[in-house]
Design brief:
Two copies of one chain form a homodimer. By secondary structure, chain A is of the alpha+beta class. The first copy, chain A, has two domains: 5-154, PurM-like, N-terminal domain (60s Ribosomal Protein L30, Chain: A, 2-Layer Sandwich); 166-320, PurM-like C-terminal domain (Phosphoribosyl-aminoimidazole Synthetase, Chain A, domain 2). Chain A has helices at residues 56-63, 69-82, 102-118, 180-186, 189-193, 203-207, 215-224, 237-242, 261-268, 273-279, and strands at 31-34, 44-52, 87-97, 122-130, 140-151, 166-171, 227-232, 250-255, 284-290, 303-310, 317-320. In chain A, the strands form two sheets. In chain A, strands 7-9-6-10-8-11 form a six-stranded mixed β-sheet. Chain A has a four-stranded mixed β-sheet with strand order 2-5-3-4, covered by helices on one side. The longest helix of chain A is centred in the middle third of the chain and has 17 residues, at 102-118. The first copy, chain A, is globular. In chain A, 55% of the residues are buried. Strand 2 of chain A pairs antiparallel with strand 1 of chain B, so a sheet runs across the interface.
Chain lengths: 322, 322
């Protein structure tokens, strides 16, 4: 084990973008984030999440590109609390290595610090561990925890979803951070180098595109319509995640737009449509359930993908895969 | 990846001991902890820490005893923020497996939930990952993040430490969660089964004694003397950790009591005294720097182990190992 500071990362160098961005970390046992702003809330609720980015790290190592991993883990965490209406405050990282590579640790923690700065939150601390007996040779794992805050009366949790609500979807930037064990069981090094038609980038580059951050999209949508439920589409796919915010007696009926090329390519390798839908976001990284109003709901990148109806079925989500 | 809920742990079953113990987790993307109590602080500062318990997990697996791992990771985290005077609020866990063993996951997360309940904090959520390509066969990793709060004016960080202060130590419960790669390079299965003289338990049982929680000891000490600095002794040993709270121009002079049998036994396997001091706590798990007063300082388990003097040396801690 090494202390966070010994990874050689200067937290002070991160650009200051918000009041949460001035933690004291260097030399301390715990990171400190001033939180007087919480006193302005009537009933502050702290919303937190722990997430890993799985074997996407392994693909990054294989292709020697670590720069996007910070956005992967930070955005994954930010999205998981933003879907409840929370404003992110600070982040802590966890890096574990077979053997600690100073250079790789520096690049990954640097990318985490950059990702925190760009979403305006503090990197409050972290842990870096070396465990040759636990990790396979050359392997590493990246995870993180986030903490944010929401006014209790403004929590979004799906409880206000009703029949007649419209379901909107926002594009993902690719597979985000799910399904990479499956992906790496399918493709070869030669596959990763091949340029994807119509994109100008290789399959490897496409697979390493960072997990998209939806915090500002959520804020924008809430500014113009009544949002009843939000689902971050991670492991479990659209049905598995959207069902978490659909109340008893209701069902979301979803018809997906055509799958992006990346998912078609994976599907062509013999992965069944049902398995594809269970593992991947299939091009939709965030789903919103909203009350329709006169001015219409879709706008910008948001596209209507379904609606809410009454149902006695135990299936909260009916997903059309055609 | 599986969701936290699918690990089969009923968070509702944890005994309610404090106001932080009622998070909403089930089915949500982020865990929610009501934090209106923060409004009672003048200038609340959130103190957080991320910690792993390293290869102690591997020894637990080898000996088939997972029950103490919850206390290991939770107490490690609690101590890291309690040394700054913070009151812990909630915890998030991270479990990563070669292959997800439902039974083992259940036992570990159950022990984490119990440890959180016993220190009066919420288990706000967590992540469980399965990565056969990253972890060696049968291996797993356990980490966690904690968040607590302290009134800004009451932060303990060593800045008030002065020459003439007395240094006290509290016993550890063993190696806590540091040095287990070294330990497992030394001992054999037969060694683990041998009963340790004077203890009535085997070496294996002694090595799996949970990381001691110092939160109440710190509270008790602060109630009767002026505490200037506190150090949680983890990787880096007494010198490496105590030096984090010794200001410029000062030095802590420490004379350790005789090492407990466990550390003597490790030392006998050819580990140099200097290496022992760098890796292990050597029987002292928490160090406090205090202002002496008329009624004396030591009490209960606290024992005087040194003092603070002025010094131009770059060594913040002079550790006598005799």
């Amino acid at each position: 084990m090494t202390t966070y500071a010994s990874a050689g990362v200067s937290l002070e160098s991160a650009t200051s973008l918000s009041s949460w961005l001035n933690p004291r970390v260097g030399g301390l046992f715990g990171g400190m984030v001033p939180a007087s702003a919480l006193k302005e809330y009537d009933h502050p609720v702290l919303v937190s999440s722990m997430d890993g980015i799985g074997t996407k790290v392994r693909l990054a190592r294989r292709l020697g590109r670590f720069e996007g991993l910070g956005q992967d883990v930070v955005h994954h965490c930010v999205n998981d609390i933003a879907v409840h209406g929370a404003q992110p405050m600070f982040f802590l990282d966890y890096l574990a290595f077979h053997r600690l590579g100073e250079e790789i640790a520096r690049r990954i923690v640097g990318s985490i610090a950059d990702a925190c700065a760009s979403v305006g939150i503090a990197l409050a601390g972290g842990e870096t561990a070396e465990m040759p007996l636990v990790y396979r040779e050359g392997e590493l794992d990246v995870a993180g925890a986030i903490v944010g805050v929401v006014e209790q009366s403004e929590i979004i949790d799906g409880s206000s979803v009703t029949a007649g609500d419209v379901v909107l979807g926002l594009p993902s930037s690719g597979a985000h951070t799910n399904g990479y064990s499956l992906i790496q069981a399918i493709f070869t090094d030669a596959d990763y180098e091949r340029v994807m038609p119509g994109s100008g980038i290789s399959l490897g580059e496409m697979l390493l595109l960072p997990h998209r951050c939806y915090a500002s999209d959520i804020q924008e949508l809430r500014g113009r319509v009544e949002v009843h439920g939000l689902a971050h589409i991670t492991g479990g796919g659209i049905a598995g995640n959207l069902s978490r915010v659909i109340p008893d007696g209701l069902q979301a009926v979803i018809e997906l737009p055509p799958w992006p090329t990346l998912f078609q390519r994976i599907h062509e390798h013999g992965i069944a449509r049902e398995e594809m839908a269970r593992v991947f976001n299939l091009g939709i990284g965030l789903v919103a359930v909203c009350r329709p109003n006169s001015s219409g709901l879709a706008g910008g990148e948001w596209q209507p993908i379904g609606y809410i109806r009454e149902s006695r079925s135990e299936r909260r989500v009916e997903l059309g895969l055609s």
